[in-house]
Amino acid sequence: MNLVIAEKPSVALSIAKVICSNQRKDGYYEGNGYKVSWCVGHLVQMSNPDKYDEKYVKWNLKDLPIIPNEYKYEVSKSTKKQFTILKKLMNDKEVDTINNACDAGREGESIFRLVYQMAGSKKKMKRLWISSMEDSAIRDGFLNLKDGSYYDNLFESAKARAIADWLVGMNISRLYSCLYKQNYSVGRVQTPTLAMIVKRDDEINRFIKEKYYTVDLMVDGFVLSSDRIDDKNVAQRLLDLIGDSIEIEDVIRKEKVTIPELPYDLTTLQRECNKYFGYSAKQTLDYAQSLYEKKLITYPRTDCRYLSEDMITNTINHIIGKNDFDTNCIKVVFNSKKVTDHHAIIPTVSSLNEDISTLPDSELKVYRLILNKLHASFGYPLVENTMKIVAKIDDYEFTSSFKVVLNEGFTQYLKEYKTNKSEDIVLDVKPKDILKIEHKEIKEKYTTPLKHFTEDTLLKAMEVAGNDVLDKDVEVERKGLGTPATRAGIIENLIYKGYVERNKKNLIAMHKGINLVTIVSEPFKSAKTTAEWEMKLSDIASGKASKNEFLKGIEKEIRDTIYQYNKIV
250 - beta bridge partners? Predict the structure, then answer.
């Protein structure tokens, strides 16, 4: 008898149907030699410090640091019933093999393994690793099960991540809360993210706008503008020099070719859903997860924007082939060497035969965007003619720029999302042409500050944070603050804890968040430090680094920080 454990009831039901395990029992399905059950999120969690010693119920500076020799875990009270069912199933004499069918990633591995360990099971483990909930993908997954030990390093990385978060949260949060008599929460990824928002807001608040001027000339239906001039008297003298006409010195024409972008990973999907629809990162993840469970898209929690080469036939014949496409894109998009745990997010083949009009509007928008992005990824390049018109007066350059689209290429699939639609202007202007000046004036302008972070721009900043301290040959997908699957939760947590607020699309640091960033020592608010930790977690998953060495480094940083403050106090 095989026991299959999925991460959610809906996924368990889909798997049970495919493997014909259709008899509904209390907390599982049974049939055809299988029992199929499910977790409900994290059934097992790390214990709080008071489970090690009752003295930790109260937060005292003298009790720090809290660094256990062995870490304790406990069953979540809210999901104890389902854990009891799983424990019984895992130790059932009829069961000889347990198949881990939780989400194929670091956290999914952790959810299953902690339950497996807490249940005291010694049964043989197999791993179902799939990127789609289509029936065919589930069948193929069961034909290609791997031994559970193949993912031991991934679990080591998951444990290291959880322990690192626990150590920082339990020690550094208590440190600053005790010192400043305020309930503060410090997180390994959360606080550096907050620090970026605080820094941006501070730059905006300290910004002093500067006035400057341009001299603008209306000629033959378009405007020639001078460069920035800081002194109005200089601008006025230049204006006085200008007569009734101006000679064109040069017309610079270039052909600009823009190639299409790759299909979506989760972070890019979240960014563009925020830009186009105003969805938060969490909303986008929730909608994408729902589409995945409905078998309409592939696994959404991916950090990869490539497809594997064995997907060429299905993708081209059944999804892309209905439209004309650029065959040169095949070797770019399909690159197995670039595929990490999961490939890019694309629609499933079966989704094309579904009535997607019944979807909620929010999910429909996300699905259509994913489909359009995939078509765009195989589209022809965008080809434009750019033209820069140049004239000079008294060594001051006046310019005007235009473009004409020669071939809209891949952009035809993304027209509905364009936010700055503009008409192409065709001008017949040549060097030495003398154009009549219809109007001339001095325009008063001001420098503008940086913009507040939106979820779009913050996600991008998190993705590249600390990259300058990492090895240049490291893949981009492995850098930054957090992972594609965790960044939405980090943003929501900052808002929930009152450190940041949403103001329309903007994310603004609140007084409590500013205070926290002000007092926290540099290592625990530095994007560079956390990006390095994130990189080491990735190395642990690939067997290149040791979990114990990683945690020793964090323990030392915690001890050193607490020691410094103890000296002051």
Answer: 390
Q: Rounded distance, CA 398 to CA 392, Å?
A: 6
- The 10s digit of each residue's pLDDT in 239-284 is 999 999 999 999 999 999 999 999 999 999 999 999 999 999 999 9
Q: Please write the tens of the pLDDT for every residue from 460-470.
A: 999 988 766 44
List the structure tokens of 257. 């070719």
Task: Please report which confidence band the pLDDT of residue 428 belongs to, taking 50, 70 and 90 as the band edges.
Answer: confident
Three-state SS at 506:
strand
Please report the pLDDT score of residue 362 as a whole number: 98
Three-state DSSP string of 343-400? CCECECHHHHHCCHHHCCHHHHHHHHHHHHHHHHHCCCCEEEEEEEEEEEECCEEEEE
Whether the upstream peptide bond of residue 65 has omega within 30° of 0, thus cis, is: yes
Distance (Å) of CA 284 to CA 28, 53, 225, 273, 491 = 30, 41, 42, 7, 13
Which tokens go with 81? 């019933």
CA 103 – CA 289 distance, rounded (Å): 11
CA–CA dist 267, 483 (Å, integer): 9
- DSSP states of 223-254: EEEE--BS-HHHHHHHHHH--SEEEEEEEEEE
Give the whole-angstrom CA distance, residue 391 versus residue 25: 81
Asked whether 132 and 348 are in contact (CB, 8 A), the reply is yes
Residue 337: both structure tokens together = 């060497």
Instruction: Provide the residue count of the chain.
Output: 569
Kindly give, in sequence order, each residue whose CB lies less than 8 Å from that of residue 442, ignoring residues fewer than 6 positions away: 213, 214, 215, 216, 232, 235, 236, 239
Q: Please write the tens of the pLDDT for every residue from 517-540.
A: 999 999 999 988 888 898 899 899
Residue numbers annotated as active site: 299
Prediction pTM value: 0.89
Q: What mean pLDDT is reported for the chain? A: 93
Q: What pLDDT score does 472 carry?
A: 45
Q: Across residues 289-298, what is the average pLDDT?
A: 95
φ, ψ (nearest 5 deg) of residue 295? 70, 25
pLDDT given for residue 420 in this prediction: 66
Percentage of the chain lying above the pLDDT 90 cut? 84
Average pLDDT over residues 166-173: 97
- Residue 264's contacts (CB-CB under 8 Å, 6 or more residues apart) are 272, 305, 344, 345, 370, 373
Residue position matching structure tokens 């000889």: 96
Q: Which of 299, 279, 303 is nearest to 481 (CA)?
A: 303
Distance CA 57, CA 516 (A): 23
Chain CA centroid to CA 111, Å: 21
Q: d(Cα 301, Cα 362) in Å, to the nearest integer?
A: 18
Radius of gyration of the chain (CA): 29
